[in-house]
Amino acid sequence: MTAKSTTSAFEPKGAHVNETLNLSFTTTRGTILMPNSRFEALIYCGQTECKQLDLNGSYLQGLNGQAMKVTGAAFLHEITTHATIDLNSATIDGQLDCEKAVFEFETGDAPNAQEAKINDGLIWQGVTVTKGTFYFANAHTSVLSDDIDSWPSGERIDLSRMNYDTIIGGPLNAKTRLVWPDKISN
Q1: Using CA atoms, how far apart are residues 78 and 48, in angstroms rounded to an integer?
Q2: How far is it, in rounded angstroms, from Cα 71 to Cα 20?
Q3: In whole angstroms, what is the distance from residue 155 CA to residue 124 CA?
């Protein structure tokens, strides 16, 4: 990791990581804590175990967290990313907070959370999506806190067999919720 000043619009308050950060297959006793940081290359956390993941407010070039195990929460609040956030088969015992995240994709997939298990809730509000396909197929969360504008329109999302136990936030009536599949599939 090399610290340096930057002249871009995003001025990190945390770390500025110029090269790939590879934490794959590691187990930490504590939190991976790098909020308000700028990552110029992919972060690898495949099969990593940690108590908490905090990248709030960071600029990312992607996160590979396949089969990652987080015993607490994963904070991706107000991140900006131009590459895939891959949480395929991840287990997050706390919340996955993606509130106000910005996904600016030119090509490729947006978040991939297929078969993810989010035990204390998915916060998906105020999310901005420019391009990319979202994959939440076979994912499970105890609580879904979302809003309709945070989901991409058209055939850019796969929610097949995604399930949740409770909905909070956003519209709670069935009539409004039943319109959402039309938004997603058109």
Answers
A1: 23
A2: 24
A3: 19
